[in-house]
C-alpha cells in the first residue's frame, strides 16, 4: 500500500516524541498527524483513508487504554499500536486483548515501528473496505418501503415465497412483486447474494 | 512521814515497810514482766518481718546473693534458690566460695574484672552480660551489685541481683530482625519503583533521540556519508543507554508477591510492634479500634506491612511539629460484606490543599529528605490487592488515610 494514501496518527504527551515521530514517519513518506492528548485526537476529523494510531499509554486525563475504549464505543476502527516506557506483561495482554496491533517498548527502532505500521494499515484497509461495503448495503436498505423491508427480513431468514405469503396472509403474487423490488433496490440478482448482504449488514432477522 | 514513824510501834513500822517494799517489788515485777512481754512481742514481730523478707527473697525469680566484703575473694554468704536455678550451681558449690570463681572461663574476663574493681573501690555495679550456666548453656544476665554498710558506714557486705534477660533479648532481636527485613523490602521496593519511574522518564527523550536520528538517516539516505556515520553513532549510543535501563529494570524486578489469607488486625499489631519505640519515645499515643470480628483478607503480608508502616511513619512525622496533641489512631472495620477498611488517623499538621492532588504521584514529597515514593508505592500495592487508598484532612486537624481490601473469598466461605 502506498504510504501517501494513508494516515498515521501519533498521540503522546511528550512534544519532542511527537515531533521526532512525525519527522521519522514523513521521512518514510507517510502522512502523519500528532496530538499531545487523547482529546486532541478525538477532536480531529479523520479522512476516510487507511490509518493507524501510535498511542502512548500514559497520557493526561484520558490514558491510552481509556482512549482505546472510547474509540471502540464510537466505532472508530483505526488500528492501534501502543507505545510505552513502562510496559509490563499484564498491560500488554490487556492491550492485545482489546484488539491492539502491537505493544512497543520505548525507545523502539524505526524498523519495529514500520513493521507494525504496515500490519496496521493493511488491517485498516480491509476494515475500511468492509465498512464501505456495509455503508453501501445500509444505504440500499434505507430505500426499501416498510413492506419491502419486512419481505427482505423474511427472505433473509430463508423463507420461501409461499411461506411468506401464508404468514402475512397475502397473495403469492404480491409477495413476488415485493421481492422483485427488493432485489432491484438491493442491486442483487440471486437470493443467495441477498442473504449474504443481509448477513453483512448484521440482519440475522428475528422478526416474530 | 518521819513523825508517823516515830509515833508508830516498830512492828507496825516493819509491816508497813515490808508491805511497801513488797508493793514496790511487785510493781517492779509487773513493769519488768510488761517489759519482758513487750520484748517478746517485739522479737516475734522482728522474726515475722525476717520471715516475710526471706520468703520474698526466696520466691522471686531474680537471683539474689550476698557477698562478704571483708574477705578477699568476696565469698558468697547467701544466695536464694533462683540464683542456683539461674547459674546451675548447687548450694554447696556456691556458699563460702568466691563469687568470681563462678564466672567460668567462657565469660568475658574483662567484665569479671570490671565488677571486682568496682567492689574493691566500694562502688556499685550495673550491667548486662552474656553468662554461662554450669552446663555451658548461654544466658543473658542483667546484674546489679550494691554495697551494704554497718552503722558506722563501713562496707560489710555486697548484695547482688541478677535477672535472666535472655527471653527479652530474644524478643527484641526478633523485632529488630523483622524491622530490618521490612526496611530492606521497603528500600528495595522504593529503589525498584524509583528506577522504574526513572526509566520511564528517560525513555521519553531516548525515543525522541532515536527517532530524530533515524529520520535524519532516512532523509539523507545515500548522501552525506560522514553525517550517516555520525547518525549511526547516535543510534548506537541510544541503544546502549536503552540496554543499561533494561538491565537495571531486570535487576530490580520486584519479587513476586506471596498472597495468603491474613488477619488484618494481627498484621496491624505486628507492624505497630516494629515501630513502637518510635511512637513511645516521642510522647505520642497510639489508639487502636480494631474490630475483632473481621473476615480474613487475601494479600501479601510484607507488602501490606509496608503500606501500614508507611502510613504510620508519615503520621508520626506529621505530628513531630505539633506540641499539644500527638494522637495516632489505627482502626479496622467492615465497610461492606466484601470489604475491610483500615484507617490511620493522626492529629498532625494535615495536608496542604495544593498537595492533595499530587500526594500519590511519583517523586512528590513535602519532606526535605524524602524520595516521594512511599505513598505512590503504597497506593500501587493497595491497588494490586484490589483496594483503594485515599487521603483526607480531618475537620479538627490532622489527616486520615483510608485503605480498603477485599476479603479473602477462599477462607470466608
Please name the defining characteristics of this protein.
heterodimer; A: 208 residues; alpha/beta; Rossmann fold; Arc Repressor Mutant, subunit A; five-stranded parallel β-sheet; 9 helices; B: 413 residues; alpha+beta; Beta-Lactamase; Helix Hairpins; 4 domains; five-stranded mixed β-sheet; 52% helix
Verbal overview:
- The complex is a heterodimer of chains A (208) and B (413).
- Chain A has helices at 15-27, 38-42, 64-74, 89-97, 110-142, 146-156, 161-168, 172-185, 191-200; strands at 7-11, 31-35, 51-56, 80-84, 102-105.
- Chain A is α/β, with parallel strands linked by helices and 208 residues long.
- The mean pLDDT of chain A is 86.
- Chain B is of the alpha+beta class and 413 residues long.
- Chain B has 4 domains: 2-56; 60-164, PAS domain (Beta-Lactamase, 2-Layer Sandwich), CATH 3.30.450; 169-251, Helix Hairpins (Orthogonal Bundle), CATH 1.10.287.130; 259-412, 2-Layer Sandwich (Heat Shock Protein 90).
- Chain B has helices at residues 2-7, 10-59, 81-87, 91-94, 109-120, 166-219, 225-251, 264-280, 301-318, 353-356, 374-384, 409-412, and strands spanning 63-68, 76-79, 125-132, 138-149, 155-164, 259-262, 285-290, 297-300, 327-336, 339-346, 389-393, 399-406.
- Chain B is elongated and about 165 Å long.
- The chains are: A alpha/beta (208), B alpha+beta (413).
- Chain A binds chain B through residues 14, 16-17, 19-21, 23-24, 26-28, 58, 83, 85-86, 105-110, and chain B through 196, 199-212, 214-216, 218-219, 238, 242.
